[in-house]
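Final report, section 2: Outcomes. Of the targets proposed, Assimilatory nitrate reductase catalytic subunit is the one most frequently requested by collaborating groups, and we therefore present its record in full.
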Amino acid sequence: MSTHETRSTCPYCGVGCGVLVESDGQRITGVRGDPEHPANFGRLCTKGSTLHLTASPRVATQARLLVPMRREHRGAAPAPLGWDDALDLAADTMHRVVGDHGPDAVGFYVSGQLLTEDYYVFNKLAKGLLGTNNVDTNSRLCMSSAVAGYKRTLGADAPPACYEDIDHADCLFIAGANPAWAHPVLYRRIEDARARRPGLRIVCCDPRRTETAAAADLHLQLQPGTDVMLFHGMLHLMIRECWTRPGFIAGHTVGFEALARTVADCTPERVSRTCGIPVEDLHAAARLFATSQATLSLWCQGLNQSSSGTAKNAALIGLHLATGQIGRPGAGPFSLTGQPNAMGGREVGGLANLLPAHRDLANPAHRAEVAALWGVPSVPERPGRTAVEMFQAAADGEIRMLWIACTNPAQSMPDQATVRRALERAEFVVLQEAFAGTATGRYADLLLPASAWGEKDGTVTNSERRISRVRAAVPPPGQARHDWAIVVGLARRLGGRLGRPGLFPFEDPESIWNEHRETTRGRDLDITGLDWAMIDRAGPQQWPLPEGATAGTARLYQDLVFATGDGRARFDDTAWRPPAEAPDAARPFALNTGRLRDQWHGMSRTGAVARLFDHAGEPAVQLHPQDMERLGIGDGTLVRVASARGALVLPARPAPELGASQAFIPMHWGDEFLGGRDADGTPLAGVNALSSPAFCPDSKQPELKHSAVSIERCELPWGLVALAWLPEERALTIRQALRETFDDFGFASCVPFSGGAGERIDVLLRAAAAEPADQAVLGRIEQLLELDGPAALRYADPRRGQRRALRLDGAGETARLEAFLLAGDTRASGWMGSMLRERLAVGGHARSLLAAHAEPPVPVQDRGRTVCTCHDVSDRAIRAHLDGHPGGTEERLRSLQQGLRCGTGCGACVPELKRLASGADGVPESARAQACA
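The predicted structure is given below as tokens.
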């Protein structure tokens, strides 16, 4: 069958990479970067380059929601029903709830992964038809502090810079972001700029020594939550050293005098004590920022996910205003969005406090404009519930019906105990979702199957305000429908019941987009000069692009007229305040969360690709080695991490890149992969069982980045390790079934590994308990891993809590280990795992493996941790290669790329390769000294 390529856009981070999707009619067979897309010029990261694997028919059969499903009551298994019945049920229930309790008894929680057209109809349904502003999005957890910071200082939610500015900057100031892992393709551009212009200086502000920080010329390893103090201290020095631009301040800003009085108290010595950084580093950072010809700042969740998120954003933007570093090539404050269409959601007003085209809900004139555009009598005045408020209101019984689309709040929201109480208490929960196995799905009364990437048609907007087309390569599987079509189907039914027919005449995404485009006329994001034909002809375009313009606008405020009433930017005079939840004697650790290089959000999509677990495969809490020594724990020791809201049991791992009394857990680990029961029998959820619901009073973005926790050794002496090769067409299903055993243990995790062998998938289950597990539970695990057949080798001693089972491929000297379970004594799991993954011959020692000795019967070498996912190259292989190749870092890197091919695929591993090639864990002192000179 002939193949076809469809030009589309990646559904992962906010870089907005173009992709070419290869398909053969009904099946996506490959993906590559679009060399003509200006966001990536053909590059993709590990996640983007494996997109086709998430869309394979075998994955879809196991992972996708394929038909509408209804639960008759909570706890029951869902049963299929037809689309008409499903939408009638949803419309009738919503109509009843609104009639009994008013429109504010309904809440819509949607997603930055929806397309702009999906977002638009959700917003119009809630605010225009139902009459409630209770529509918010997981972008509230992502970028709302940046929205508030831009509006407070520059007057509009409009990032003024673009990716091209990286090529013109002399100083990159990266704060609270790790683009080497979170935005890898953008980081490739930073590496290219540095190679072309060795004089480019990079300053990175981060409590962790991430790959980005390690490669920077200057790393400000500040204490968590002290960003505002840092920025105020930099401004203090800029004023003292006459590094500000008084003419720019006088001619284009207001409010500087008040802020100058506030930062007068932020002396270098005070900032050094508060932030935990040397005075000389503070001085170097302030000088580089202020005196470089062009300074571009990049930031993400480290600033946004905070109870002071708006203040952090505004303080950083204030540094640009004080030094005139804005409105020209290479200079400006540039927030990086975490999701593929967080910008598009902001554009259509898909937040509880916004209206379409960046209009403010609190502005009566704006409400009147939108009502006229939509043809409704009015838009409700009362502010809607934001994300944290919405689930708290549902937990309190004020919101009776929740409609959730394309997101997984039972994994991603903070304070999971409250979120799950909300999902349990709500009278009716609708989940509109592509994937069947998310944690939220277990609470839904009605599940509606939605189309996913590769099947959708519409637009998205990336971090640099660039609108790109998303195109369908294949039809949706089963009965899945497009998100916009589901909403329109519901809205038409509701319109008839409410006496407001005709508000949703849309028949395709373009007709929705055309209405959205009209709402932007005369606004800061005016796109009335853009249509789909222009994107098809000229490629993705940046806004604003008003009627009559021939191309979009790359850089804003080049005329130094800002989007305020008087055209002047505003300094924000907000003093530093500590995080909402400071560590104390009872909870002495500051917990931080963040991304892994190869994973995405709650892993509903990336979790279907085994090779994406090879770089960082299992959940763990990272701690500084000195803290581990003080706690008396070693690498892999199980610890109980507890906050005021919940607890989690995890293995501890040493991480010298952390500061003392800090902890780090990747944000991705929810109870789809991690679980168990606490000592009191409470089920353990994922990482966000720990996180704080405290939020910024201005942006309402929660403080996911900072929670106070205690950490102590968890006494679970009985352990289990099981590892098995499984065929791809059943691996996801078996993993989901293994998850059902989690509650039988004090700790349990289940993840896939690829083992670097093509279609091969290894499923790893770890568990621990205070007492040996029930034999029936162990039997169930053996059954799922095909360790119960007549060919399996088995040993059991229930009295001692010992149980072992093996499955072999072949016989005699060439037999290879295909699966094993070790319960009780798990000391042999390391070398047995290496035998299985490396497909080493057992060599006639099959039965001796049942003895579970601490030493292997045949020579086994651990291959190490995968560094290069594209070419399956481990750190052990890299170190062995480097041992024989002296020279400088760049020379050794080239040797690695030529000899092992690592770093020649997507390039996401290049920062780590450079660190390994340098022979050090960080930047050499000479580089730091040069930056500070």
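The chain has a mean pLDDT of 94.
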